[in-house]
Each structure stands twice: as structure tokens, then as C-alpha cells.
């Protein structure tokens, strides 16, 4: 075995079998002739979502809602209305409830991806984080109900489970807002659900592009916070597919968690640059050693499907019956879905394949 691959071999806690690669393409929402709006639409997820929709569907409208004029201009060059006549670009901020009310008129589905996502940024700018992630979630809920939107899927993060930083706490609050929103919607017909997944390889702010940039700049070593640190990994394409499948599957008020692999961040650094040594820099404030996507306390309301876990709203027997009919099965008492005890760890070959897929999306 080549030395580079040998260094990628997992320790006992990350023994084979390798994780299966799931593309999450089924079930799949049909966006043809629908009006779809995505908040934070010029971010990494938004661009990947728009690219896929343009390739596979013909919606009546696909509205990119974001506050950055330059990014919208650049996106409009990549997805011009001349080639994609359904594209719309709408300047606005989720902090502005009145603007959201205007943007959501006639919209069928909302994908809520807008958020302040950087842990250090949120720690240093706590009020700004709350305004966007929590008050912005409230604005999306109110506007969606008022405008008669049919379905809303909100993007969350593994950091919302057992949070130790403000970003995670703000996203947990947002998750609770969306899961409770159906009760507020009453007979309006608007349904809300949440998708929660791990670190996106290749996204803006991800560690993989950082490692590649340092490698290209001729760095003599790569910074690693802690050799033991583990993370869940998903590609942008998988993330978009998972949102579309959850949009189709959702009953309302549930949290969808994909089954995805995890590995040590040090293994990721080795996969990017096998020849470079690692420099330990220590865990940053607000950073976990391992991530959790289904906390132990949520096990009693969690069902397992073939490719995902579904955290159900408490006391909703009918919703539980719906997912049992789909083949869901209760997880064991004390179950938790965590990156250091993931039953589907990622081996060296799987990690390199995932990196190759992520670089192909970039």
C-alpha cells in the first residue's frame, strides 16, 4: 500500500466497512411549473441548487433572494434570463419581514438557506447572528403563512444539536421555530420541515478549500486543530438532492438527517496533501471535538429509514404512523448519531472519492 494511503487508514474506532455513497436522488420533488424561492440564494448551496434546477426542471419561476448585489449580478451572468427565462433575482434580507412578504407572493415552495454560518464570526458578532438566524427564521415563517406558501424546507447544521457555540444555538432556535410553525399555520396549508447535515466539502468556508489553497500557495504544513477531531461530510450535490428528497417526503414539523460518512479532519488533510506534515493549532473557541446530528435525548422521537433519520415532532402519533408506513423503525434507547461513533465511517478510498466529487462541483 502506498504510504499516502497507509496514513489514511482509520484507527480501530473507524474500522471498515467503508461508507456507502448515497446520492439522495429519491424520492424527488417535482419543481416543474412551480414557483420556488431560495433565501441566501447566492451562497454555495444556493448556486448548486440553482444549477441543478436549471439542468433538471422548468419551474414557472426560480427566485434568488439575497442581499448581495454583486453576487446576484455575477450569478445572473452564469444563469441569465435569456437562457433560463424563469430566473428571477430579488434583492432582500431575511431580517426585513416586509420585503419577505413581498417576495413570497405567489410562491409555492421556499428553501431557506440564508444564515450567518461562521462560528468565529457569530461569537464576535452575536447580535448580528441572532438577527439573521433567529429573527430571520421568524420572518420567513410569518411571510410563508401570510402568503400561502405550500412547503418550506429550512437548512440547519450539525452544530444545532447539543450546541456549544452561538451559531449552533441560533440554528437550534431556528429549528424549533420551523418545527413549531405548523401549529401557527393552522388551516393555511403551509408545511415546514428542517434538514440537518454535516460539513459540506467544497462550500465557502469549508476546510477542504482552505487546505487546497494552502497547498497551492506552497505552505510547508497544514494546520490541524486536534488529531482526534471528527466531522460528518457531504458534497454540495448530495446536499441539494437531500433537500429535494425531503421537500417531497415531508409531512411537516420533522427534522431530516442524512446518513453520511465521517472521518478525522487530519485524514482529510492527508488526502488533500499526503506529503505535508500537520501542525497542531488547538481547538478554537466554540468548536467541538466531535459533532452530533441526532442527540441521545432525541432518540425516543427518531425513526430510521434506509438513507436517513427522521426526528419527529413530540406527541404527534399520526406523523409517526406515516413514517412507520414508509418503513421507518425506531432507533434504540440511548442512540445518538455522532461523528466519532458513526456506524458508517469513511475509509481512505471513500474519502478520496468524496473529495474528487466535491472538487468536480466547485
Please summarize what this structure is.
With 362 residues, the protein is an alpha/beta fold.
Protein model, in words:
By secondary structure, this protein is of the alpha/beta class. The protein has one domain (20-198, 234-259, 294-344): 3-Layer(aba) Sandwich (Rossmann fold). 38% of the residues lie in helices and 18% in strands. It has helices at 3-8, 44-56, 69-78, 97-103, 119-124, 126-147, 166-185, 207-216, 236-249, 265-272, 317-325, 348-361, and strands at residues 35-39, 61-66, 87-91, 109-112, 151-155, 191-195, 199-201, 222-224, 230-235, 255-258, 262-264, 278-280, 292-294, 302-304, 308-311, 329-330, 337-338. A ten-stranded mixed β-sheet has the order 3-2-1-4-5-6-10-15-14-16, sandwiched between helices. Strands 7-9-11 form a three-stranded mixed β-sheet. Helix 7 links the parallel strand 5 and strand 6. The two termini are 30 Å apart.
Specify the overall morphology: globular
Report the top-level CATH class.
Alpha Beta
Q: What portion of residues belong to β-strands?
A: 15-25%
Largest sheet, described in full?
Answer: 10 strands, mixed
Q: Which runs of at least 5 residues are low in confidence (pLDDT < 50)?
A: 1-18
Number of helical segments with 4 or more residues: 12
- Helix-strand makeup class: alpha/beta
Using only C-alpha atoms, the radius of gyration works out to 20 Å
Order of helices and strands, N to C? Answer: HEHEHEHEHHEHEEHEEHEEHEEEEHEEH
CATH homologous superfamily identity: NAD(P)-binding Rossmann-like Domain
Taken together, the total number of domains comes to 1
Q: Please count the beta strands (DSSP E, at least 2 residues each).
A: 17
N-to-C CA distance = 30 Å
The residue-averaged pLDDT reads 90
Spatial order of the strands forming the largest sheet: 3-2-1-4-5-6-10-15-14-16
State the helical fraction: 25-40%
CATH architectural grouping: 3-Layer(aba) Sandwich
CATH topology: Rossmann fold
Amino acid at each position: 500500500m502506498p504510504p499516502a494511503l497507509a496514513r489514511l487508514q482509520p484507527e480501530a474506532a473507524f474500522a471498515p466497512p467503508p461508507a456507502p455513497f448515497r446520492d439522495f436522488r429519491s424520492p424527488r420533488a417535482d419543481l416543474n411549473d412551480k414557483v420556488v424561492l431560495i433565501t441566501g440564494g447566492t451562497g454555495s448551496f444556493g448556486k448548486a441548487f440553482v444549477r441543478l434546477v436549471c439542468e433538471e426542471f422548468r419551474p414557472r419561476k426560480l427566485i434568488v433572494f439575497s442581499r448581495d448585489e454583486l453576487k446576484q449580478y455575477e450569478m445572473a451572468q452564469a444563469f441569465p434570463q435569456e437562457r433560463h427565462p424563469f430566473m428571477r433575482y430579488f434583492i432582500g434580507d431575511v431580517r426585513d419581514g416586509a420585503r419577505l412578504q413581498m417576495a413570497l407572493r405567489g410562491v409555492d415552495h421556499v428553501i431557506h438557506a440564508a444564515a450567518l454560518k461562521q462560528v468565529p464570526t457569530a461569537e464576535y458578532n452575536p447580535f448580528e447572528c441572532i438577527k439573521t438566524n433567529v429573527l430571520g427564521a421568524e420572518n420567513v415563517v410569518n411571510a410563508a403563512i401570510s402568503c400561502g406558501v405550500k412547503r418550506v424546507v429550512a437548512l440547519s447544521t450539525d452544530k444545532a444539536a447539543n450546541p456549544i457555540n452561538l451559531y449552533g444555538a441560533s440554528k437550534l432556535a431556528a429549528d424549533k421555530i420551523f418545527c413549531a410553525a405548523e401549529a401557527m399555520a393552522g388551516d393555511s396549508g403551509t408545511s415546514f420541515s428542517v434538514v440537518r447535515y454535516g460539513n459540506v466539502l467544497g462550500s465557502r468556508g469549508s476546510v477542504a478549500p482552505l487546505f487546497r489553497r494552502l497547498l497551492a500557495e506552497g505552505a510547508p504544513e497544514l494546520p490541524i486543530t486536534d488529531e482526534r477531531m471528527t466531522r460528518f461530510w457531504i458534497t454540495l450535490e448530495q446536499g441539494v438532492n437531500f433537500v429535494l428528497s425531503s421537500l417531497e417526503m415531508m409531512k411537516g414539523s420533522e427534522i431530516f438527517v442524512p446518513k453520511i460518512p465521517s472521518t478525522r479532519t487530519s485524514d482529510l488533510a492527508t488526502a488533500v496533501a499526503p506529503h505535508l506534515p500537520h501542525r497542531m493549532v488547538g481547538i478554537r473557541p466554540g468548536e467541538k471535538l466531535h459533532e452530533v446530528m441526532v442527540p441521545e435525548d432525541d432518540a425516543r422521537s427518531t425513526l430510521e429509514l434506509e438513507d436517513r433519520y427522521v426526528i419527529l415532532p413530540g406527541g404527534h402519533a399520526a406523523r409517526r404512523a406515516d413514517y412507520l408506513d414508509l418503513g421507518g423503525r425506531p432507533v434504540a434507547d440511548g442512540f445518538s448519531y455522532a461523528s466519532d461513533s458513526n456506524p458508517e465511517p469513511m475509509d481512505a478510498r471513500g474519502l478520496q472519492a468524496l473529495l474528487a466529487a466535491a472538487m468536480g462541483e466547485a
